[in-house]
Amino acid sequence: MSVDFAGDTxxxxxxxxxxxxxxxxxxxxxxxxxxxxxxxxxLGCGTGQLAVPLRRHCRAVLxxxxxxxMLTGLRARAAPGILTVLGADSDLPQLRSLxxxxxxxxAGAVVIGNALHWMDEPAALAxxxxxxxxxxGVAVVTQGPPLWLGAEPWQAGVRAVLEQGRGQVRxxxxxxxxxxxxxSDILRDQGLDVSITRWQATHQVDTEWVIGHLGxxxxxxxLQLDQPDGLAExxxxxxxxxxxxxxxxxxxxxxxxxxxxx
Length: 262
Hints:
CATH topology of the domain at 8-145 and 171-202 and 249-258: Rossmann fold
Strand order of the largest sheet: 3-2-1-4-5-7-6
GO molecular function: methyltransferase activity
InterPro entries: Diverse_substrate_MTase, Methyltransf_25, SAM-dependent_MTases_sf
Helix content: 25-40%
Domain Methyltransferase: 41-136
Protein name: Class I SAM-dependent methyltransferase
Number of helices: 10
Keywords: Methyltransferase, Transferase
Number of strands: 7
């Protein structure tokens, strides 16, 4: 897992990425079989969009991320019971040696939110499954389509501005059906029981939120905030032309694989 989420990107991530809502977090915890005694591992935890809402459903959360700025943002939330560790998917085998004993103990769950597409997916999911206690679960949580691929006219305008300076933008960030099916097969091949849950939401957003959210998905400095004709200003001009009617349709998908009881 290697990506530039430093500087402005991590600060924008903390401000402009939505937490999983409390009711969805409760349903996800149930699907994972989380208990009050469990440790949950959040791989690619970012600034805590899954870790914080899921914390109330387990004993502790271990948040791993390879970007120090992301961990700084999570620690700044001062959520009790969350330990942040500089690490990536390649560190999961070492983590297994610490969490899994000969008696079969392990993590109650491993969750990955909007980050799996940055990893070696088969290896990361296999290593996540190996961390689980009996009855534990792996969840891959995605939100899509990405803002730049949405069907609203203002989203088409955003996509056009991005493509003027960055070329074609078609990355689904793993939120498409093909990725979902591939990941489901990987989990089934591990002998996990697979379920898929979806939640729909419509969000009223504004110009500054859209620009900030885009900045959280781009390399540090890509918004060109200090340039009068930079990307941020060109996005702002496109969005202002929509007269403030900015609705975003979001589908949150939770792919869960549970390890059965012997």
